[in-house]
Amino acid sequence: MSNIGKIIRVNALPPEEEREVNVIYQVAAPGSTTYTDYAIDSNGDLKTHTTTETKNYKAYVARLQVDSSFNLIATVLDNNLGSITWSKTGTAAYTGVLTGGQFVDSKTIVMMNMSFAPTYSTATTPAYSFSSDTEIRFSLTAASDLEIPLGMIEIRVYN
């Protein structure tokens, strides 16, 4: 149980050497009627309040490129789903194998596009499918898709 028992409202958090202990300083936000709480324990240590955004899904987000040999290069931008290893499986066809997670039927969505060269202003959505709960396949279907150098993929698996 905490010994903090006094709340002090201030315009700014006092310097460390001037702070009381076992208190909560409520620091006013400039031009607002809201306050940010700072708890000071019996040792004079500042206990910060942290918040974390919780999402009801895990995601894999990557920038995709196709090199001159038509190999897929994925630059991962955000990932808490698991590692995906991409490989070329045919002409304009690719497979991603997920390690550390699963694609759950009826709880997985895929957002993907690939932009046409050279302007990046027109995009196509590749056809994709799941061959298992750890494997996604997609292909670039039109002949002009082979000229696509840049795209993105976001896979979300909801709880």
Number of helices: 0
Strand/helix succession? EEEEEEEEEEEEE
Q: Span from first to last CA? A: 34 Å
Helix content: under 10%
Cα gyration radius (Å): 25 Å
Q: Return residue spans where pLDDT drops below 50 for at least 5 consecutive residues.
A: none
Structural class: mainly beta
Based on DSSP secondary structure assignment, what is the total number of beta strands? 13
Largest beta sheet: what is the strand line-up? 6-5-13-9-10
The total domain count is 2
Largest sheet: 5 strands, antiparallel
Mean pLDDT: 81
Strand content: over 45%
Shape: elongated
Describe the protein.
- The chain has 159 residues and is mainly β.
- It folds into two domains: 6-47, no CATH class; 57-158.
- The protein has strands at 6-10, 23-28, 35-40, 46-47, 57-66, 72-79, 83-90, 93-99, 108-115, 123-124, 127-132, 135-139, 150-158.
- The strands form three sheets. Strands 6-5-13-9-10 form a five-stranded antiparallel beta sheet, with no helix packed on it.
- The protein is elongated, with a radius of gyration of 25 Å.
Give structural attributes.
2 domains; 159 residues; mainly beta; 13 strands; five-stranded antiparallel sheet; elongated
SSE blueprint and pairings:
Elements lengths: L5 E5 L12 E6 L6 E6 L5 E2 L9 E10 L5 E8 L3 E8 L2 E7 L8 E8 L7 E2 L2 E6 L2 E5 L10 E9 L1
Parallel strand pairs: 1-2
Antiparallel strand pairs: 2-3, 3-4, 5-6, 5-13, 7-8, 8-12, 9-10, 9-13, 11-12
In summary, what is this structure?
With 159 residues, this protein is mostly beta strands. The protein has strands spanning 6-10, 23-28, 35-40, 46-47, 57-66, 72-79, 83-90, 93-99, 108-115, 123-124, 127-132, 135-139, 150-158.
